[in-house]
Amino acid sequence: MTMKTSLFALLAVVLAPLPAAAQTSDLNPAANREVTVPQDITVEQDDGPLTGTVTDDTPWQELGIAIASFATSSDVATPANAQGTGALGLELARIVYNDLRSNGLFRPVGPDALPRPSYGQITAPAWNVWQGRSAEMLVQGYVRANPDGRLTIGCYLYDVQLQQEQARAGWVVQPSEWRRAAHRCADLVYSRLSGESPFFDSRIAYIAETGPRDNRVKRLAIMDSDGANHRFITNGQSTALTPRYSPDYSRIAYLSYVDGNPRIYIYHIDTGRQTLVTQSSNPTFAPRWSPDGRWILYSMAIGGNTDIYRVSAAGGGTPERLTNGPAIEVGGSYSPDGRQIVFESDQSGTQQCYVMNADGSNQRRISFFGGRCATPEWSPRGDQIAFTHIVGDFHIAVMSPDGRNMRTLTNAWQDEAPSWAPNGRIIQFFRVERGSGEPTIWQVDLTGENERQLRTPVGASDPAWGPVLP
């Protein structure tokens, strides 16, 4: 699939007054099409999030949300679901439900336990039905098959107690892209109720592992944020490690042993072309993108000494060395503003975390809490750094950029390699259970109270969460 290809036509109906027919704006600006929503709707102006911006990491009081099956104006066949648009409406609601139930903020009830609204009730909810079920918020939607084969999908959020609409949006999608519309609906609900940025309409890169422990095959793979639409990128003939999406989703930087030596390649998603980041006979590893996508940060070992470098992501140019001590320095990660880099080093005698300016100046240690500090990654919010805390076992932990306020979020045997969700509330990592040897991908929120496993078809390690899709 080409990232430059328009996937959606966005119906601009989020908390703005609209007539019965609203103009859409494709991700491709050249394509504008009209979409008719069911019934005339008068919508109040947006007064902002219902509950305020959430920047703390304390547990929330869960908000009850009923997520009903999406209705259809006519149950007809569609390539998106062999059973028709009626069955597709149920699947859409199930995805919204599964997205919202796993982040610790809401108490959703899914469509399989709820009555199914009619098409006409999507914009005129049966309030007595939902009040009788003690629902605080209601998510309803519709799916309609268009003559050109595409689908129109609408999403509505209501406050049941106030009997008011709070948000709505709609999308025109190809049948193969219906899941993205469901994720966007979940993002709409999540952002409106939490005040935070969305993150469900995003993708994850990871390393797919198969085979015996002494002859492991490690392939680069990608999937949606919920594990759907899984796809292998490399064939496993050479080991792949530590993938990272570029900020615009067009490329993935990763470590490959193509010629027997660890070197960093960039995979171009739209063409499948691969390019070598820098021509060097020395081992290079641990690639990270700068927030603007202009630079690749990486580590290179020369004569037993490992330092952090940066090189132009466009290819060519001379790499710039940012650290130059006798220690082993790896795993750099930029702050969201691109001004600082967090990395790990053993210059103090043990594996610890350090911060430096983006040009390599002002290096200082920040981890002084006992144990070792590894694989640090800066939060997209900029307020915290996630890392692997090694104290016998391996745990996922967070700390402030100055090293204070350290908190451990997981307590299993081997949890490592944290990667942030685009909005900075969820951390993804991989786990190996004691005695199993099989890695699996897990997620935990900033409270440490909500863990869940992300299912993959094979063993999975080195997860990297990309930004929200354009």
Automatic annotation (TrEMBL):
GO cellular component, one term: periplasmic space
Biological process annotations from GO: cell division; protein import
UniProt keyword Cell cycle present: yes
Residue ranges of coiled coil: none
Pfam families: PD40 (PF07676), TolB_N (PF04052)
Source taxon at top rank: Bacteria
Subcellular location: Periplasm
TolB N-terminal domain segment(s): 80-165
Gene3D superfamilies according to UniProt: TolB, C-terminal domain, TolB, N-terminal domain
Signal sequence bounds: 1-22
Keywords: Cell cycle, Cell division, Periplasm, Signal
PANTHER family to which the protein is assigned, alphabetical: PROTEIN TOLB, PROTEIN TOLB HOMOLOG
Function: Part of the Tol-Pal system, which plays a role in outer membrane invagination during cell division and is important for maintaining outer membrane integrity.
Complex formation: The Tol-Pal system is composed of five core proteins: the inner membrane proteins TolA, TolQ and TolR, the periplasmic protein TolB and the outer membrane protein Pal. They form a network linking the inner and outer membranes and the peptidoglycan layer.
Membership in a protein family: Belongs to the TolB family.
Name by which UniProt lists this protein: Tol-Pal system protein TolB
Protein source organism: Aurantiacibacter arachoides
